[in-house]
Specification:
alanine racemase activity; Lyase, Ornithine Decarboxylase, Chain A, domain 1; elongated; single chain; TIM Barrel; eight-stranded parallel sheet; 13 helices; binds pyridoxal-5'-phosphate; alpha/beta; 414 residues; seven-stranded antiparallel sheet; Ala_racemase; isomerase
């Protein structure tokens, strides 16, 4: 994980956005390792860190506490800083008020840890208020509107009831409405009109929340796609995920290099074995790939439990010492076989192996990084051959793959 690339990406996105930004570090920072990513993003100017799950935010808070990172003042007008960032978790488990008030409930833990939470329904507001009453401190809440994605959030006709519930809890001293937020569903289709519709619905939700007597200070709507392609959606805060990791939200709109972003993750492993097989020999489970000629093969100790999709059978691209090749045959749980080319020339004379055990096979990374093999495949290449998106390729990196960091994430001193 190239922390210098991460820091550069953060600056590129922050410059485009021109607003405060939240670093999205859910799913172990998209597979990159939450602690190194969070601290690098704070050093690069993030004032907010966001996760989906409350459990992820609690884990992050413990990591930050252990590093001596301060918590911001609880007050509504206290502005967070990189030294005292705010944490937000938006996928809050549903609890009844009784469950929420029980000692050690997820909501009480979140409040005690100073984590902002999202609420989409009056029932969620009531659970937060119950947890806050039990914990003896108001819950900091971001009300979520559904502006067209139909995932979490209150649809237009339900916003007044959500706002009324929040207002009641505010008056009782159990809740502080910090923000109003939503999420774009088609930010990577700049000409679809979808984002304009989201924005119109967002404005309507804001009017309805204000009419209930609430003043959400932090309005946020844009993830990386909105940040890049919809200036009107940047509002008070942007939530940057995939772009921080150097990947484009949609390479068909603009590639990462067109956006000036550098992939942070490089997945590599030293070859365990190199061997020759004769023409006609089948490879891996089911024998789905057969050597067309005498062939050199390499064995890579990474499989589907490490995050290589099975859809990459005989397709996943790999580079070894300047050679660009692919996985051959099925992806196994722990290993894949790669083709290293013909073992004999057209006259039948032996061809030496182009790689040796211990040589490093690169599955995905940044072909443009200084000193990188230009044959290096990208997470986008893997996504294309597997029929998925770069997000899924990096976030599925398995737990047993060691995350090794390079760089310190600080601006170059020269
Ligand atoms: C994952 C997520 C983001 C980040 O999206 P990117 O496209 O990776 O920038 C932002 N907001 C919410 C609500 C998310 O779930």
């Amino acid at each position: 994980m190239d922390l210098d690339a991460l820091a550069r990406n953060a600056r590129v996105l922050a410059d485009v956005a021109g607003t405060p930004w939240l670093a999205v570090v859910k799913a172990d920072a998209y597979g990159h390792g939450i602690e190194a990513v969070a601290t690098t993003c704070l050093a690069a100017g993030a004032t907010w860190l966001g996760t989906a799950q409350v459990a992820e935010a609690l884990h992050l808070r413990a990591l930050l506490d252990a590093r001596g990172t301060s918590r911001p003042e609880p007050g509504l007008d206290a502005v967070p800083t990189p030294d005292a960032p705010r944490l937000l978790a938006w996928l809050v488990p549903f609890l009844t008020p009784e469950q929420a008030a029980a000692p050690g409930s997820a909501l009480r833990q979140a409040l005690a840890a100073g984590i902002d939470l999202s609420a989409s329904t009056p029932a969620q507001v009531e659970a937060l208020a119950a947890a806050a009453r039990a914990e003896g401190r108001p819950a900091r809440v971001h009300l979520k509107a559904d502006t067209g994605m139909s995932r979490a959030g209150a649809v237009a006709e339900d916003v007044p009831a959500l706002a009324a519930a929040a207002r009641r809890a505010e008056e009782e001293g159990f809740l502080d409405v910090v923000g109003l937020w939503s999420h774009l569903s088609r930010a990577d289709e700049p000409d679809s009109g979808s984002t304009e519709e989201h924005l119109a619905r967002f404005r309507a939700a804001e009017a309805s929340v204000r009419a209930a007597g609430l003043t959400p200070r932090v309005r946020h709507l844009a993830a990386t796609g909105g940040l890049l392609w919809h200036p009107d959606a940047r509002l008070d805060l942007v939530r940057a995920g995939i772009g921080l990791y150097g990947l484009s939200p949609d390479p068909s709109v603009a590639t990462s290099s067109e956006l000036g972003l550098s992939p942070v993750m490089r997945l590599e492993a030293p070859l365990v074995q190199v061997k020759r097989i004769p023409a006609g020999q089948a490879v891996s489970y089911g024998g789905t790939w057969t050597a067309p000629t005498d062939r050199w093969l390499g064995l890579v100790p990474l499989g589907y439990s490490d995050g290589l999709p099975r859809a990459a059978a005989s397709a996943g691209p790999v580079s070894v010492g300047g050679l660009r090749t692919t996985v051959v045959g099925k992806v196994c749980m722990d290993q894949v076989v790669i083709d290293l080319g013909p073992a004999a020339d057209t006259e039948g004379e032996p061809v030496p192996a182009p790689a040796a055990p211990g040589d490093v096979a690169v599955l995905w990374g940044d072909p443009g990084a200084p000193g990188a093999d230009p044959a290096t495949p990208t997470a986008d290449d893997w996504a294309a051959v597997c029929g998925t998106i770069n997000y899924e390729i990096v976030t599925r990196l398995g737990a047993r793959v060691p995350r090794v960091t390079a760089g310190d994430g600080l601006p170059a001193s020269h």
